[in-house]
Amino acid sequence: MLETQDLTIRFGGHVAVDRVSCRFEAGTLTAIVGPNGAGKTTYFNLVSGQLPASEGRVRLQGEDLTRLPAAVRTHKGLGRAFQLTQLFPGLSAHENVRLAIQARESARRGIGMDLWRVWSDHRDWMAEADRLLERVRLSDKATQPASSLPHGDQRKLEVGLLMALDPKVYMFDEPTAGMSVDEVPVVLDLIRALKARRDIVILLVEHKMDVVRELADRIVVLHHGRLVADGEPAEVIASPVVQQAYLGVAGTARDA
């Protein structure tokens, strides 16, 4: 469903991602791991359109997205959750989710400024937002501004927004970062539920190897911007290159 071909980006003389080629099939969860500065988040930024590629291609279901901006890629089906939450801080949790649903439907059906149709659909959008907030366990905080929510609840709300967009590709960049021990299982349960679907791709950048072992069908390892290992979790984790490049490096620092 998703493919990167020789994907590369240079910052001056530094090659941050170096000719990374990968194919990601529907029904799989791939963990992208590596030491601090390996290029994981930069690779995500290239795929989702936050950064323009110096070379290479990004294709979704055969369509070349390489020169398209991030917003258009989102409409095409690339959904991204970030290390730092990306919410509408002044709007309530419910309004955040409802707007994501409205944006999805407007893009799919070309609603534009047809106000009669918008109002006729409004009740359905509200009900769907209610259901999604219940799934991320934020029903009791639906009316609170996003900016007033604790960090863990903001992370859950961002997952709710991503689910509201119903993308073909879910991209999670350290989804449990900064969450308390009690909050982490909620997000992991949501990812497990998404993984049960067979029609989507899930990509996960995560430093916690226990999470990777539990969730991943496949592990891709980046080191100095290059793909150095790719395969089943047990095989990749046991490989000498990963032992040296990743497991021997403190895994608490964040990717830049």
Secondary structure elements and pairings:
Layout: E1 2-11, E2 14-24, E3 28-33, H1 40-48, E4 55-60, E5 63-64, H2 70-76, E6 78-81, H3 93-109, H4 115-135, H5 151-165, E7 169-173, H6 184-195, E8 201-205, H7 209-215, E9 218-223, E10 226-231, H8 233-238, H9 240-247
Helix pairs in contact: 3-4, 3-5, 4-5, 5-6
Would you write up a description of this structure?
- The chain has 256 residues and is of the alpha/beta class.
- The chain is built from nine helices and ten strands.
- The chain folds into two domains: 1-38 and 49-71 and 208-256, 3-Layer(aba) Sandwich (Rossmann fold); 80-166, 3-Layer(aba) Sandwich (Rossmann fold), CATH 3.40.50.
- Helix content is 40%, strand content 24%.
- The strands form two sheets. A six-stranded mixed sheet has the order 6-7-8-3-9-10, with helices on both faces. The protein has a four-stranded antiparallel sheet with strand order 2-1-4-5, covered by helices on one side.
- Helix 3 packs across helix 4 (115-135), helix 4 packs across helix 5 (151-165) and helix 5 packs parallel to helix 6 (184-195).
- The protein is globular, with a radius of gyration of 18 Å.
Number of DSSP helical runs: 9
Task: Give the number of domains.
Answer: 2
Structural class: alpha/beta
CATH class assignment of the largest domain: Alpha Beta
CA-CA gap between termini: 27 Å
